[in-house]
Amino acid sequence: MSHHGHHHQGGHHHQGGHHHGNTAVYDHAHTVDAVKSAFDEQAATYDSRNEKLLERMTAELRSRLDFIGVDWDDEDGDDDDDQGEHGGNGGSAEPEDAQAQAEEKKKKQVRLLDYACGTGMMSRALAPYVTQCVGIDLSENMVAAYNARARNQGLSPDEMYAVVGNLADPDRPDVLPGPEFRDFDLAAVGGGFHHFVDPELAAARLVERLRPGGVLLIWDFKPHGQSHGHGEGCGRGRGGEDEGEGDGDGGFVGPARYAITHNGFTEERIKAMYEKAGAGTNFRLAELGTGFVAGGGHDARDKEMARRCVFLARGEKAA
Predict the structure, then answer these.
(1) Which helix (H) or strand (E) holds 30?
(2) Is CATH 3.40.50.150 what the domain over 2-87+100-316 is classified as, yes or no?
(3) Angle at the Cα of 217 (from 223 to 238), degrees rounded to 5?
(4) Cα(290)–Cα(28) distance, rounded to whole angstroms?
(5) Which of 115, 209, 253, 288 is 20 to 30 A removed from 188 (C-alpha atoms)?
């Protein structure tokens, strides 16, 4: 099933499938069933098959913590920007001050919602900088793989766990209503938006789950061949629309092809999506480059995807 491992290391992304009326090409049930089937099948081998891709995406995310712009947890000393604020008084702090500082840090919560989480690449990439990762995915097998990896790393559910769910069902706005699924500092979707039939609804539902000032983070693909040319290695492209260009299914075969409803997103569309969803504050988009591909990268589909430009976008919910 490597035909579509390239776009969802962060998870796959399908939960957003839905439709407006009966005229949609991709109805909700068809989309959800097709994607669930595809990802249930590849859950067991996903990480091993995509090891190099997962490593690259992890490095890309960790090198852009400032760009993402969350007030990260810095218990490991990784966030240099916070060292002056939390680093003590040059070693001269009184014991009680150090204790109070430790207790204050203990209370600080930095919570990540990893939507369309898959096996948890986004969660594992950002885990050192947050206090809790909560994954949500349509695929029971992916959720099971996510939770097994968390347990194998010695993490408790308080630190990392996933549940089965679809936040972007147009008929069920009240899914997972508990407080544990709200007020996140960061909601992230890795390679999932081109599977959402209505990305704008998916974005709005995710922003609802953020605390005021929280960040919506998306990585996905630009349209076939498109780049503004000022990114890191994306090169020049011929442009193109969000949809309807190329082969119409991203070159993929099998059940998951029916869930690919967008052949990438222009910066203009992503910016408008963020603004409509209520996360347009301090919107930024960066091109990460090309060469993001799953599996061995040898067949025609993998090679085509390797030419696609990947972007990372972020914006904040109004405080």
Answers:
(1) helix 28-42
(2) yes
(3) 15
(4) 31
(5) 253
> Which amino acid is present at 73?
D
- Copy the structure tokens of residue 35: 């994607």
* Distance between start and end Cα atoms, the chain: 42
The Cα 56–Cα 61 span in angstroms is: 9
Q: Which two tokens stand for residue 106?
A: 């203990």
Using CB atoms within 10 Å of the CB of residue 23, give its burial: 0 to 12 exposed, 13 to 18 middle, 19+ buried.
Answer: exposed
What's the pTM value of the predicted model, to 2 decimals?
0.77
In which residue are the tokens 């390679």 written? Answer: 191
Q: List the chain pLDDT tens, one digit each, 319 residues.
A: 333 333 343 444 444 433 333 334 446 677 777 778 888 888 898 888 888 888 999 999 999 999 999 999 975 544 444 433 334 444 444 556 777 666 665 678 999 999 999 999 999 999 999 999 999 998 999 999 999 999 999 999 999 999 999 999 999 999 999 999 999 999 999 988 887 878 999 999 999 999 999 999 999 999 876 665 544 457 544 343 333 333 333 333 334 444 565 678 999 999 999 999 999 999 999 999 998 876 666 677 667 777 889 999 999 999 8
**DSSP SS3 for 160:** strand
Query: CA angle, corner 20, sides to 19 and 24, nearest 5?
Result: 65
Is there a contact between 288 and 64 (Cβ–Cβ < 8 Å)?
no
SS3 217: strand
Q: List the structure tokens of 175.
A: 């899914």
Give the pairing type, strands 160-164 and 132-137: parallel
User: Contact, 67 vs 129, CB < 8 A?
Assistant: no
